[in-house]
Amino acid sequence: PGDTIFRLYDTYGFPADLTGDIARERGLSLDMAGFEREMAAQRDRARAASQFDVAYGGRLMGVEGKTAFSGHAQLADTATVIALYREDGNAVPMLEAAQGQEQGGKVVLDRTPFYAESGGQVGDIGVISTAQTHFEVRDTQKQGEGVHIHNGALTKGVLRIGDAVEAAVNPKARQAIALNHSATHLLHAALRRVLGTHVAQKGSLVDPQRLRFDFSHFEPMTPVQIKEVETLVNAQIRVNHAAQTRVMAYDQAVSAGAMALFGEKYGDEVRVLSIGEFSTELCGGTHVQRAGDIGVFKITAEAGVASGVRRIEAVTGQRALDWITTDETRLLVNADLVKSSRDAVDDKVRQLLERTRKLEKELEQLKGKIASSQGSDLAMQAVDVGGIKVLAALLDGVDPKALRDTVDQLKNKLGSAAIILAAVADGKISLVAGVTKDCMAQVKAGDLVNAVALQVGGKGGGRPDMAQAGGDNPAALAAALASVPEWVRGRLS
Questions:
Q1: What is the pTM of this model?
Q2: What are phi and psi of 17, to 5 degrees?
Q3: Which one of 195, 274, 299, 447 is separated from 311 by 20 to 30 angstroms, measured CA to CA?
C-alpha cells in the first residue's frame, strides 16, 4: 500500500526504491500512485508549516513587522517582546508560569540572535529571560519573509508584550549545527569533483546530531567513491581555510560562480559563503569561522531516496569521533569473538567463512547419504495399488533438497510409482511428491501433494512429475500420509 511505502520513507528514512526491490523479490506490487499522493500531501503540509500561518476565528492570523536577525555576529542580544501567542496560536498580552507549571507559547521579538529554520538548517534553541522570567526556546521558525517565531515554554515568571529581555542561543547546539552546515558545503563541492558537475543539491537537513544531503546522481556510489569524497572533505578541513561571508547582489554572486541551492528563495542581496577556493555557495545559514573547526568528517550512510536522487548522511566533530570510537570498539569485540587480533580480523573472518561453506557442503552430502539410506529401507514399505507402487512416509533429519533427491532415487527403484515424503523441522512440515511418467495420466504429483498438504494446514504445487508443499500441523501428518494409498486407489478407479 502507498501509505505504508510513505511511512517507511517519511518516518524511518527507508528509501522507496529499496522498498520496491524487496517487495518485488517477494512477488508484491507497489501502489506508487498512493505513495505519490502521500508525498504530495506531505509537501502541502510542509509549505503550510513553513509559512507558519495560524487558523484563528475562521481566518488566517499573521504577525506583522520584521525581526532583525543578529545571530551571524553574536549568540546573545537584548530585545523587546512585540507579540505573544499561546500554543494554539491565540494572541495574548502575556504568558504566565502559574504555580510552577510551565506554559507553552510563542514569542516574537524585535531583534534576535536565534536562527529561524531555513535552507535545511534547523532553528536555534536557547533561552529568553529577564531577572524574574525564563522562557525556554525549543525551536525557532520564520513566518513570512522576516518574523522569527520562538517556540517553547515559559517555565518561570510572567512575560508581557513590551518587556525588555535577554535572548541567548544555546552555544553548544549552535556550534554543532555550524560544523554540520559548513561540512555540507564541503561535501557538495567534493561530490561534484568526484561524481561530476551534474551533481546538484536536492534537499538537506542540518541539525546538531548529523547532516543529511540529497543530491542528483544516476546510480549508487561505490565504496571507492564514498571514500574519495570523505578524503577530499577531510583534506579541506586540515587545510583550514577561513569561512568568509560577503553580502552582494544576487546576479553578481551567481556571475562570480556562487552556487544557488535547491528550493531556496533569494532576495536582491544575498550572503555568499566561501571556504577557500574549494566551495562557494549562496547561504544565509550559520557557519564555522575556519574549516578546521569541523574537526573530522565521517560519512555514515549512502542510499537512494528517489529516482535519480541519492542521500548521504554524515557526522562531524565530536559525534564523528564518537562514531569512529564505536566502530573501533565493535571491531575489537568481533576480533575477540573470532579469536583474532584487530589487524588480522579480516583474514580470520575469511577463513571462518570458507570453513563454514565447506562444513555446509559436507553436511548437505551427509544428509543426502542419510536420505539415500532411508530411501533404500523405504522402498520395502511401498504398497501395490492397482499396479502402482505407492509410498507415503516421514523422514527424520532431512531438508527439502534431500527429500527431492530421495524421491528421485525411489522413482528409479520402484518403477511405476507415486511417492510422497515428509519431514518436520521447527513445527513446519515439508512435503515432496513424485510420480513416474507412466503414471502421470492417472496421478499427478501436484494433486497428490495437495491432497496431503490440505490435511496439515498447507498447500503447494509443481510439475506433474514433481511437486512440493508445506504445512504447519504436524499432529495431523501421520493420518494424512496414511490416507495416500486410498486416495491413489480413488484416482485409478
A1: 0.66
A2: -70, -30
A3: 274
